[in-house]
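Might I ask for a little of your time on a matter of protein folding? The record follows directly beneath this note:
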Amino acid sequence: MQLYTFIDWFFTIASLLITILLGIYLNGAGCLIGLLLYLIYPVMIEFSYNLMSAKQEIIIKTMPEIPIVYHDDYNITACGIEKWHPFDSCKYGNVYRQIRQKINDKHLTPEMLSRGTFLFLGMSKWYLFKMCYSAYASTLIELPVFFLPGAFLRSCLLDSMLLATSGSIYAARLALEKGWAINLSGGYHHASLNNGGGFCIYPDITLVVNYLKKYRNLNKIVIIDLDAHQGNGYQRDFHHDSSVYIIDFYNPYIYPGDHEAEQAIDCSVHIDRDTTDEQYIKLLQKNLEKHLQNDMQFIIYNAGTDIMAGDPLGNCCISPAGIQRRDEVVFKWANFKKIPILMLLSGGYQKENTFAIGESILQLIT
């Protein structure tokens, strides 16, 4: 990945320099050569990278003392540009430090998986190619960064999300060994294999499901999505897949309102600003008891905290204590049914969410 980033920046800078030099020493029309190179170099990079990158095995060389997956590079720091978005892009590190104050056990630091692995798990080559251009990527992350070089956007923002996606897959592997695992990022539930949106670029949930199927031969996987928003990305990927069972609690009055994707949901529960902690937990208990079957082999738990009161995008009113109770209920049911569970952090758009996440994780693991 370091070589890929170096080549990416090299071609970006070289093409811009050629454009400037041709404009100075030749004429304005000569700039077109440099601009053409600037536009087509991603084609060459993607072609060579896809050609040379092979599928790899998902191996954990040394088992961590605690099944938590985290990397410092999860946190997005793009020269302050990330502050334009309501998402707290450094919450992962803040949650990690909060946990480390009470637990010093060694966690798992993931590596970036190869492009060949992502392609084997179903990622669209065309979609990855389009991500080379800031004009397209800016529509998915909802920031006006179309004017930035693609190399800058990838190295400062997209690579962090891709690393977190790798972390979700490693965490799934870890959950199979330990019975549970938490990736302190991920949960990009608006992303599908060939599209993205809502600040979700890479479809880690879909890729985890495909990893479990292709690498581990599992055929009964349940997704419990308790983020405030509908998980339309993976729902589009598994619309006609009976091996994936989807439970989704979401606010139907906010983004994305994807009615076509809703058809993939097996258990749909609508919540809103009037849903109290007591009502929410009662609904959760009732539906998990009804829908979690003994033959289910793996749980992907998308634990978004944007259902918290005050969150600017979730528009719900669950308290921090309700968040802790929610996570406890899901983990207790997974333990009762003896189903391995992977927890992903997903959404949560205010500083208060960070503390609630950390406290909830601490109560789960201590």
